[in-house]
Amino acid sequence: MNRIQRIGIITAGGDSPGLNAAIRGVGKTALASGMELIGFRSGFRGLAENLTLKLDKRALAGILTVGGTILGTGRDKPHKMEINGTMRDMTDVIARNYERNRLDALVCIGGGGTHKNALRLIEKGLNIVTLPKTIDNDVALTDSTIGFDTALDIATEAIDRLHSTAHSHHRIIIAEIMGHRAGWLALGAGIAGGADVILIPEIPYDVRKIAAAIRARSKAGTKFSIVAVAEGALAVEDANAFTTAAWHKKIAKNKAEKLRAKQELMRLSALHAGNTLRLAKQLEDLTKLEARVSILGYVQRGGTPSPGDRLLATRLGTAAAELIQQKVFGVMVASRGEGVKPVPIVEVAGKLKTVPTDHSWITAARRVGTAFGD
Ligand code: F6P
Questions:
Q1: How large is the average pLDDT for residues 282-309?
Q2: 14 C-alpha vs ligand 1 centroid, how far in Å?
Q3: Can you tell me the mean pLDDT for 209-216?
Q4: 6-146+305-348 and 151-301 share one fold
Q5: β-bridge partners, 36
Q6: pLDDT value of residue 347
Q7: Atom of ligand 1 minimally distant from the CA of 232
Q8: Which residue, among 354, 357, 331, has the nearest Cα to 136 in the 3D structure?
Q9: From 15, 104, 136, 138, active-site residue
Q10: Residue 59, Cα to own-chain centre: how many angstroms?
């Protein structure tokens, strides 16, 4: 391969603020150095179905501040994609489309799933560079991910606003914040918004201890409490049940045992779906205070990116195009302090950056009296 001439780009997984800023960063740098940029719509599906979009100067104009992604996104996996009602392995088709579009490299912007999928395509010979994106901030080996800063602003503002009803009505208000497997967003917004209780997946909780903390506040004269709960936070007994089922799946000796363990995991997940509402009921029973739930949901991923995310996306996006020009492939462009660092995708895929229980944010929260239910 001589000079890099054409690069492809996709956004995959859940949308998050700053994706367009990243596309623009990659695109402007690429165009300035004489490369062509081809966008593929709807994540990995666009690569499989060859849904292309030429990203010229005009297409990149005015998108820096726009939420979502001009390319569209999706959660399809290259090796297990539904095509006309049947599940198919589309990795070879994607590799063919890569050749057909005469791509020299492909940029994949996404989170945990995207990194696993990118690795599958690297194994098929594609030259890939990734950018870490998710409001959950749970991608390994990067300080932060595109979208987290904006979501942190939104969730913090929500907690600020929930205080009004909480103190006016002397209620417990539970704000459910995104984050199935990592609690960065609930923790960050909980601290910044002054939540009295923060519940995250990394610290299984005892509902009686949460109730005791709330009752202590009431006794001291503060009749309201704010609980920031990550959607994946678990009571100790549920966390143990999940660990056991996951262990059974891991040590399963045959297909039947594996299936049973999988079914148990699915049963537990379904049970967990209404967890925040159940928690509200439990806290009402234990504290005799009224409790209400606000599920922040997709509002957290919506709208214009924060200045911090625009900056991060521009830093990472421009660096990705530079790396491609230098023919550095198979890496994720990680954010490290003020700088960026290419890290092998193979070291990122399948890993999760959870909150260490001795993390300085947790220490600080405990120092200001926040309860974690542990
Ligand atoms: O990827 C981040 C995330 O926002 C999670 O926190 C959330 O659980 C998940 O995506 C839900 O996304 P969707 O419903 O779009 O699959």
A1: 97
A2: 6
A3: 98
A4: yes
A5: 6
A6: 98
A7: 8
A8: 354
A9: 136
A10: 27
Q: Are 48 and 9 in contact (CB under 8 A)?
A: no
pLDDT for the residue 1 = 60
- Measured by CA distance, the residue closest to atom 9 of ligand 1 is 14
Expressed in angstroms and rounded, the spacing between residue 254 Cα and the centre of ligand 1 is 32
pLDDT grade, residue 271 (50/70/90)? confident
| Domain 6-146+305-348 of CATH type 3.40.1390.30 | no
Distance 171 CA to ligand 1 centre (A): 28
To test ligand 1's pocket by mutation, which of 135, 146, 269, 275 has the most ligand atoms within 8 angstroms of CB? 135
Per CATH, the number for 151-301 is 3.40.50.460
Q: Which residues line ligand 1 (CB under 6 A)?
A: 13-14, 75, 111, 134-136, 178-180, 231, 301
The answer to whether residue 15 is catalytic is no
- For residue 279, pLDDT beyond 70: yes
Output the DSSP codes for 204-259: -B-HHHHHHHHHHHHHTT---EEEEEETT--BHHHHHHHHHHHHHHHH--SHHHHH
The DSSP code sequence of 140-165 is TTSS--BTHHHHHHHHHHHHHHHHHH
Which whole number is the average pLDDT over 58-69? Answer: 98
- The atom of ligand 1 lying closest to the CA of 231 is 8
